């Protein structure tokens, strides 16, 4: 490690702490303070408001389904990227990072273009078969999957690369078939990466706003998620409600991350 | 014949890792695949195990055509250079893996694992994780794990390559003793000719994707089929038209036998009971070649009264193993 003098060390620490404080910690604590400004009353109101309860339930449903889908495809695509050689592998890898780079609003619009029932490329035919994607749960889950797609993969890929395929080959030579090898050897080795990826995906999915706003249509009690509700509450001067809903969203996400960092064994960083 | 490899070819792009290799390995023996790095010996072992597939050719194990069989159906035990231990399982669980996959009854698994850990001297480590073992212990555990499934053949890919010199030597002797006890057909890959000579019943020398020679350690040493085999199995020096081992060069201090080469001692090194000489041949004989290396016993050197600058006459000893030297291009 490079040696730095004590004043420089303190200055650097102050800079780092200050940066995180003004950018993250302070604004978030303000939400907490505002949410609890009237004690627990606001939360009682929130949880007795049918619209809010519906929005929170919908958010949970969409997030959980999107996370499950991303879990299966994330682990599958990670294995594909690390263990197999195929033409177009680098293109696939680059495409997976796309959701990180593209604004969720653009994601929403692009899904709308392809799947809307009036002039979408697929949407028209799907609508003929009675499948509605836009302005329904399906579209919202798709949009959420899209934005959270890289999170599981980017956690799992480095771990898969690091452990190599020696253990898997050893298992095969000892008589294990592909399924047994995956369940007994690969999965336990990447367990914590998968858990961390799932938690990040869940946190991201709970907070998704832009893409969902476009594909959902934002209909109260039907396709309005918690983040959309926050916006609506805020715009209709229900600040207390907006803060309380925000707090619930932030609390669940932070809780997930804290629980995982406590559970995670120390040697895995 | 336990393993029958027929006309196997494997290419990586334009590079021939194996070029039309045929070899048969007998039952119950300990065979070494010996050759320089990148010569194709590991590829051959992995093809026998089913971990790689050959582009063409076939592999039969105990009379069964295994060419198209996946690794888990071949009943081979494989030991990897870097151990490939299951990091999240205890030593006992590692060894039990193959048995549990085969749905062996619990009591039977326990008994077998106990026996195997006894065999590899790891009984007291049964409940530890592999990360708490030394390299040598991990490799012994990997060996027990491979033996647990009672494989038809045991394949070891540079099994001692990642260990330090002392442990390497110990494990090598231990493997020989183990094989004498267990008698499972064993094939191991090595680039260390001393390891192969010391441990194996039979050696297959592989170079540049081809089999150079198959034979017992003595056959290979005494009757090398090619310049390459001779050079790979020990030190070689060149004397006039032939190549031979430095200890097979006869030294006299006066012109005697016809056809001997006169020269001058330019370097002299005493190592233990040996004396190593470098002899510069007289210009009309040396034709600009490297000096000739000669190894004598200390007593012999003293009897001849050789020292730096001595004039000597060199010839190939009677019965020396020689191969024609390659013509310099």
Polypeptide structure, described:
The complex is a heterodimer of chains A (269) and B (329). Chain A is an all-alpha fold and 269 residues long. Chain A is built from twelve helices and no strands. The model of chain A has no long low-confidence stretch (mean pLDDT 88). Chain B is an alpha+beta fold. Chain B has two domains: 227 residues, P-loop containing nucleotide triphosphate hydrolases (Rossmann fold, 3-Layer(aba) Sandwich), CATH 3.40.50; 87 residues, RNA polymerase II/Efflux pump adaptor protein, barrel-sandwich hybrid domain (OB fold (Dihydrolipoamide Acetyltransferase, E2P)). Chain B contains ten helices and 18 strands. Chain B starts with a strand and ends in a 5-residue tail after the last strand. The model of chain B has no long low-confidence stretch (mean pLDDT 89). Chains A and B meet through helix 8 and helix 9 of A and strand 6, helix 2 and helix 4 of B.
Short description:
Chain A has 269 residues and is mainly α.
Q: Which features does this protein show?
A:
heterodimer; A: 269 residues; mainly alpha; MetI-like fold; 2 domains; 78% helix; B: 329 residues; alpha+beta; Rossmann fold; OB fold (Dihydrolipoamide Acetyltransferase, E2P); five-stranded antiparallel β-sheet; 29% helix
Terminal CA distance of chain A:
19 Å
- Can you give the helix content of chain A as a percent range? over 70%
Strand count of chain A: 0
- The overall average pLDDT of chain B, rounded, is 89
Number of domains of chain A: 2
Order of helices and strands of chain A: HHHHHHHHHHHH
Total count of helical runs of at least 4 residues of chain A: 12
CATH homologous superfamily classification of the largest domain in chain B: P-loop containing nucleotide triphosphate hydrolases
* Class from helix and strand fractions of chain A: mainly alpha
Numbering strands along the chain, what is their spatial order in the largest sheet of chain B? 6-7-8-3-9-10
**Number of beta strands of chain B:** 18
Q: Could you name the CATH class of the largest domain in chain B?
A: Alpha Beta
The count of domains of chain B is 2
Largest sheet descriptor of chain A: none
Q: What general outline of chain A do the C-alpha atoms trace?
A: globular
* Rg of chain B computed from alpha carbons, rounded to a whole number of angstroms: 24 Å
Instruction: Give the uncertain stretches of chain B in residue-range form.
Output: none
Q: The biggest beta sheet of chain B, please?
A: 6 strands, mixed
CATH topology of the largest domain in chain B: Rossmann fold
**Percent range for β-strand residues of chain A:** under 5%
The coarse silhouette of chain B is elongated
